UniProtKB/TrEMBL annotation:
UniProt-listed GO biological process terms: amino acid transport
Protein name: Branched-chain amino acid ABC transporter permease
Key words of the record: Amino-acid transport, Cell membrane, Membrane, Transmembrane, Transmembrane helix, Transport
Annotated transmembrane regions: 12-37, 49-65, 71-92, 101-122, 142-168, 197-220, 226-254, 266-285
GO cellular component, one term: plasma membrane
């Protein structure tokens, strides 16, 4: 049997795959957080709930409207993104001129309210959401057995991350968004609707969280607590990558997911804290994060 550092190759690669899957969710969620913070300067504590709303939206669409996974993968982010747009336009936008702490407190309160509402109607236990038939089963790679759905999650998450980065960094809309955060008065003088841009930015971040929620639904059970269980880790990922850094959020999400997975192989007792240990070390050596810009 092939061994790596005294560990069977199959066990090593299996944990590497788990780390890559977790990293896909970390990357998607931290990307949404980074987009919102980088462009709106809002620490969106409701991001975990928006992730949960995406999973619930997919499940409820299937239960009540027979909308399958593939349509839910498109519709659920749109629904949650629209909800996010309404929240930003009528509530969050009133706090922009105040201290950033007010935005954090508002989104934290919103998260508690929505989570409590779903716990009241659905309880704390999770509910299943089936893997789509086209992605059921797995394939034998020779050195390991790869579940097809988990491979799909890695590929589509990476595609979504790269697509979002290209949208923000390489398009005219992205340049407007970045300029609006630096000098909104000047941008508005050129006829650009800055408030609409900010609303679209928050909706994009919420939609990314919901997209991750739909992807997670067949792997983890759909539960009101699924967002609160992951959001603290995602905040750590964003801090390590650098607050507001789009590419930093993507790369750090995958790197820390893999680091967490490999820690389960070599030192399982530390797997739950390794990301926070890395965060502490990075903050000591580089307070702005690995890819952040020093103020």
């Amino acid at each position: 049997m092939t061994m790596i550092f005294g560990i069977p190759l199959q066990a090593f690669l299996g944990q590497l795959l788990i780390g890559l899957i977790n990293g896909s969710f970390y990357a998607l969620l931290s990307l949404g957080l980074a987009v919102i913070f980088g462009l709106l300067r809002v620490i969106n504590f409701a991001h975990g709930v928006q992730y949960m709303l995406g999973a619930f939206a997919a499940m409820l669409m299937l239960q009540y409207f027979s909308i399958n996974y593939w349509f839910a993968l498109i519709l659920a982010p749109l629904v949650v993104g629209l909800f996010g747009a309404v929240v930003e336009r009528f509530l969050l936008s009133r706090l922009y001129k105040l201290d950033h702490l007010y935005g954090l407190l508002f989104t934290f309160g919103l998260a508690l309210t929505l989570e409590g509402t779903f716990r009241y109607f659905y309880g704390s236990s999770g509910q299943p959401y089936a893997v789509p038939p086209q992605l059921a089963g797995g394939t034998n790679l020779g050195f390991m057995f790869l579940p097809i759905y988990r491979g799909w999650v890695v590929v589509i998450s990476l595609a979504a991350c790269i697509g979002t980065w290209l949208l923000i960094e390489k398009t005219k809309l992205g340049s407007y968004l970045r300029a609006a955060t630096e000098n909104p008065v000047l941008v508005q003088a050129f006829g650009v609707n800055v408030p609409m841009l900010l609303t679209l930015t928050y909706a994009l971040g919420a939609g990314l969280a919901a997209f991750a929620g739909v992807l997670a639904a067949p792997i983890y059970q759909v539960s009101p607590l699924m967002g609160s269980n992951i959001i603290i880790v995602v905040f750590a990922v964003v801090v390590v990558g650098g607050m507001g850094s789009i590419m930093g959020a993507i790369l750090t999400g995958y790197m820390l997911g893999i680091a967490e997975g490999l820690t389960k192989v070599f030192y399982p007792e530390a797997s739950n804290i390794v990301i926070f240990v890395i965060m502490a070390i990075v903050l000591l050596l580089r307070p702005a994060g690995l890819f952040g810009r020093d103020a």
